[in-house]
Amino acid sequence: MICVQVEPVFQNRKAITDGVEEVNSLKNFTLVSFTVLVLIASSLAHSKTVIKVQMIMGKDSPEYVMANKFATDVLALTGGEVVLKILPKLKTTETKGLLERINKGEIGGGIAWTHYWSSYHPATMLFGSPTAGAGLGFDNISWVSWFLYGGGRELYDQLWSEMGMNIKGVMLQPQGPEALGWFKEPIKSMEDFREYTYRAPPGIPGQAYVDLGVDAVTMAGSEIFPALKSGTIDAAEWCCPMPDRIFGLHKVLKNYYLQGIHQNVVNTDMYINGDLWKQISTQNQKAILIAADASMMHTIAWRMHENGKALKDLTDNHGVILRDTPKDYFTEYSQAAQKLYKKFSSSNPFFRKVYDSMEKFAQSTVPFWAQAQSSNAQIGSAYANKIKK
Question: What is the CATH number of domain 49-176+266-302?
Answer without folding.
Answer: 3.40.190.170
